[in-house]
Amino acid sequence: SQTIHQWPATLVQPVGSPLSLECTVEGTSNPNLYWYRQAAGRGLQLLFYSVGIGQISSEVPQNLSASRPQDRQFILSSKKLLLSDSGFYLCAWDRGGAYNEQFFGPGTRLTVL
Amino acid sequence: AQKVTQAQTEISVVEKEDVTLDCVYETRDTTYYLFWYKQPPSGELVFLIRRNSFDEQNEISGRYSWNFQKSTSSFNFTITASQVVDSAVYFCALIGTGRRALTFGSGTRLQVQP
Fold this sequence. Notes:
By secondary structure, chain A is mostly beta strands. Chain A has strands at 3-7, 10-13, 19-26, 32-38, 44-52, 55-58, 64-70, 73-78, 87-94, 103-104, 108-112. Chain A is 0% helix and 58% strand. In chain B, strands 2, 5, 6, 10, 11 and 12 form a six-stranded mixed sheet that branches. The A-B interface holds A 32, 34, 42-44, 46, 49, 51, 57, 59, 88, 90, 92, 98-107, 109 and B 31-33, 35, 37, 42-47, 50, 52, 91, 95, 97-98, 100-102, 104-107.
């Protein structure tokens, strides 16, 4: 069966510090991968998606970036965090192709102070 | 453009009551899929159901049922005989032709009181 991991689970970072969140998927190959952010009490906003190694599409321009160095690894980064980057970050995967349901990881709760 | 509206921000019911969560969507795509996800307090989104735009047959899974009506662009979710464990935020989502990612509604927080 497939599993998706995210770490860290929680993170408190000062404004201006760098960020690296990691997501890995097990039990599947060539998945589509996604990063979402959920601000407190709000819905999910798609940040990035990837259909393959090194292929990243950005949905919302901002100071975050994403990379996919391996087939089942997806990394969300920032060089300098802003207060507005606080939120709950969720990684998701699907089987590829069209219209497939996405499966989500446990999330990382980021607080920028 | 795609849009999903969940007008109910928060619903509170007493255990064993039935509750319906509303979802209204907008899309110009002729082929699309609709989804419901559950987000318990732990935060992880749990997939509940996927329905394509050509299948308006209602679906029942245990205490859960879904009513898809293209005429009103709605995909409502009913929990029968609610339980405390049903307390969560529920999200409706949509994906259309050629798109890569889901468009989510803002979610409905369901509180089931014992």
